[in-house]
Amino acid sequence: MKQGLNKLGIYMGVALLLLVLAACGAKQTNEQIVDDKDNKVEAQEKKQEQEKEQVQEQEQEAEAEATRIYTDALSREVEIPKHPKRVVALWSVGDMLLLDTKPIGSTTHLLRFYSDEEKQDIEMVGEDVMGDHERILALNPDVIIVYARATEEEIEQYQKIAPTVATSFFGDPFEALQAMGDILGKQEQADQWIENYNKRVEEVGKSLSALNVEGDKALVLLLSGKNMHLFPSNIFPTIFDVYNFKLTDTQRELEKDGPFNTQQLSIEGLLEFADADRIFVVVNDEASRSVFTELQESNVWNSLPAVAKKQVYELGNRISTRDVSTFEWALDEVRLLLEGEKK
User: Fold this and answer.
1) DSSP result, 139-204
2) What is d(CA 182, CA 84) in angstroms, rounded to the nearest whole number?
3) Please, what's the b/e burial string for 12-35 (b: 16 or more CB within 10 A of its CB; e: otherwise)?
4) How far is CA 12 from the centre of its chain?
5) In sequence order, what are the residues at sequence separation of 6 or more whose Cβ sits closer than 8 angstroms to the Cβ of residue 298?
6) Burial readout 114-129 (b: 16 or more C-beta within 10 A, e: otherwise)
7) What pLDDT, in 10s, does the model give residues 68-122?
8) Could you give the C-alpha distances from 89 to 56, 118, 127, 183, 196, in angstroms and in order?
9) For residue 302, which of 260, 329, 267 has the smallest C-alpha distance?
């Protein structure tokens, strides 16, 4: 009887062990099934993600290669990339920089007023405005910007390298910025900059009373090439529109029918503008520095009321670049001069 019980115990132990092993096997099988399922899902998700990335890359490539027709300042229809990446700027450099886009190439002349930081990574492709054909060709641009005074032959020459677009020659600066925004696909950024600039102009208007310039007449003289020039007031809107200086009687008469052609002045001719309360002088190049020295030593100059009252200011020569980035710079430049903080 005892022996039978022992056998029964052994059978039951074996049966229990088999049950445990079966349960473990079932558990492992279930876990394997779950793992296999998870791996398949993960593989499927990874495949879908790779396919999505491939589609995005294809779309980006297609977008990069996409072109459109742009009508430039000379009413020429030019096929250009929707989003140019490699632009050689033979004009409108300030507008490009304002839109956070550096040209890959420009000229020494166009960049002469900019800082080393602003000029960094911009290849110099020549000295004068139109640059050097071979240097521009070597840069492999996708768009070339020229000014509206470029000749038909010059444009045709550059058109052989890349789509060549003409922008306005000293037209409305705000329209010029919007045009560049259109070319670069950054219209919203251009519009936002203009909105922010107008807010700054409003702030300047509120501060004019503290500067004690209300009703004052201003004269702006530009010295260039050892000559002295008088420009129409619309060339210097920061002075006459933002800071609201009045025109001298002679200049107001000159502008009664609209802007006049630039006039060269003699030292004696300054006597016609003796009613100026403030005189701003722009020494455009080093060759003209001696002209300014000669002017300051003349009897005519020292007889002018603005000189006697020490209300003469030398403006930075960047003012002669008429684009909106210069307008923004001039807001602070003129204020500092009037406050006597800029020597």
Assistant:
1) T--SEEEEETT--HHHHHHHHTTS-EEEE-SS--HHHHHHHHHHHHT-HHHHHHHHHHHHHHHHHH
2) 11
3) eeeeeeeeeeeeeeeeeeeeeeee
4) 89
5) 267
6) beeeebeebebbbeeb
7) 999 999 999 999 999 999 999 999 999 999 999 999 999 999 998 888 999 999 9
8) 31, 14, 13, 12, 25
9) 267
Non-local CB neighbours of 248 within 8 Å, separated by 6+ positions: 217, 218, 219, 273, 275, 276
**CB atoms inside a 10 Å sphere around CB 131:** 25
Q: Centre a 10 Å sphere on the Cβ of residue 233 and count the other Cβ atoms it contains.
A: 21
pTM: 0.75
Q: How far apart are the C-alpha atoms of 262 and 228, rounded to whole Å?
A: 10
**Nearest Cα residue to 241 out of 196, 191, 198, 190:** 198
**C-alpha count within 13 angstroms, C-beta hemisphere, residue 176:** 24
Residue pair 331/204 in contact (Cβ under 8 Å)? The answer is yes
The pLDDT tens digits of the residues spanning 227-267 come to: 999 999 998 999 999 999 999 999 999 999 988 889 999 99
Token digits for 39? 């791996």
